[in-house]
């Protein structure tokens, strides 16, 4: 089964970017770890009928009444937990690991960080980043393939707005490369 995992879409309208919509059309299950922002955005993601979701801190009060804070479900014998805020550190996933054990899941999907991560230890920790508002990363989602209890995941980088940090980092790399080329010519 192919899952597309995403979070932190922060869409004010229900309009899903086309590249993302194509990925959603081709998967078996959509898992959203919160921060749709609006009911219109939630409705657009839910139109396919294959959405599993929790609310995020930026979601409207109506979404917070409609969606759970935590969700647990099973796919082909693999227990999956979903929460928006699994922990606040982008480098230390200890809190998420403990939360996965508390929820008794094999995979914990969380959002809020806007930065993608797949970490495999006792459990698989997945933060899909954000397809529309990334932080210190490119726009992204995660694809999970679950077959007969086996879990394979990959981060999919999307087109779209890249965070300013990444633009700055890339411009430094380009500048350094140009300097190196000029030094070789001299």
Report on the architecture of this protein.
This protein is an alpha/beta fold. It has one domain: 4-Layer Sandwich (Purple Acid Phosphatase, chain A, domain 2). 29% of the residues lie in helices and 29% in strands. It has helices at residues 18-25, 39-46, 61-66, 94-103, 164-185; strands at 2-6, 29-32, 51-53, 70-75, 78-83, 107-110, 116-120, 124-128, 140-147, 150-157. The chain has a five-stranded mixed sheet, with no helix packed on it. A five-stranded mixed sheet has the order 4-5-6-8-7, with helices on one face. A hairpin with a 2-residue loop joins strand 4 and strand 5 (78-83). The chain is globular and about 65 Å long. 39% of the residues are buried. The mean pLDDT is 91.
Could you write a compact summary of the structure shown?
Helix content is 29%, strand content 29%. It contains five helices and ten strands; from the N terminus they run βαβαβαββαβββββα.
